[in-house]
Specification:
There is one protein chain. This protein is α/β, with parallel strands linked by helices. The chain has a single domain, classed as Metallo-beta-lactamase, Chain A. It has helices spanning 37-41, 54-57, 60-67, 75-85, 151-159, 176-186, 208-213, and strands spanning 2-5, 11-15, 18-22, 46-48, 71-74, 89-92, 97-100, 103-109, 129-135, 138-142, 163-167, 191-195, 218-219, 228-229. A hairpin with a 2-residue loop joins strand 9 (129-135) and strand 10 (138-142). It starts with a strand and ends with a strand.
Length: 230
């Protein structure tokens, strides 16, 4: 299994024969040069979206059309795009699980906000979420944009993820300290990969605080387009 950071909160996860693009943000992403765009999305089988903010959703629809692959996201968003854009989608909701080949994806709760830009201004279509992604004897918790929440204890009881991809840049999501608190309080991660940081000066630029806070886990500061093999 390979987890490849595309900058910000975007990932390419190669797992059990599937290539999952998580919140792919290509155009305008200051961390992902255009020269890497084709390689970042090559062979993609599914697009998973956590919520409607531009830095998570803006390339989801174009990629779905270009590659003729399904968007896996909340029913409200998927249904809207199926009706208005003619794409293929897999719409479900929090607590639901879908099978993508040999990969199981469960949608879980997050605490954030979710609006999508339209010509008439921002509109809510669905709400924020995270994912539990299971395959190859691993379970990955993709937190999506969220703060710490007590629900995380339930997530661990039900899914026992060994890998955490945690939004930890602060200001819009948990910061490194809060992400570390969540990891210690609710989870038993073997590996933690922070994201939603470094992109802008407003966000945290280092994972040092997370590394210090969770000494028993392998905290990996990802490098853009460098595979993390697990």
């Amino acid at each position: 299994m390979n987890i490849i950071w595309l900058g910000h909160a975007s990932f390419r996860i190669e797992i059990a024969g599937q290539v999952l693009l998580i919140d792919p943000w290509l155009n305008g992403n200051p961390m992902l040069p255009e020269a890497f765009h084709a390689k970042a999305t090559e062979g993609a089988t599914h697009i998973l979206l956590t919520h409607g903010h531009f830095d998570h959703i803006c390339d989801g629809l174009p990629l779905a059309k270009e590659k003729d692959i399904p968007v896996v996201a909340q029913f409200d968003l998927v249904n809207h795009w199926e009706e208005t854009e003619g794409i293929e989608g897999i719409g479900f909701n929090k607590g639901g699980t879908v099978s993508l080949g040999d990969v199981a994806v469960t949608m879980v709760h997050a605490v954030h906000s979710s609006t999508m830009g339209t010509p008439d201004g921002p509109k809510c279509i669905g709400s924020e979420c995270g994912f539990m992604i299971s395959g190859e004897a691993h379970t990955i918790y993709v937190s999506g944009d969220t703060d710490v929440m007590a629900d995380m204890g339930v997530f661990n009881d039900l899914h026992a993820p060994n890998i955490g991809i945690l939004a930890a840049g602060g200001h819009f999501t948990m910061d490194m300290k809060r992400a570390g608190y969540a990891a210690n309080k609710f989870f038993n991660f073997k590996t933690i990969i922070p994201c939603h940081y470094k992109t802008f000066p407003l966000l945290e630029q280092s994972a040092d605080e997370l590394i210090k806070t969770v000494p028993d886990a392998n905290v990996i500061e990802p490098q853009v387009m460098v595979p993390i093999e697990l």
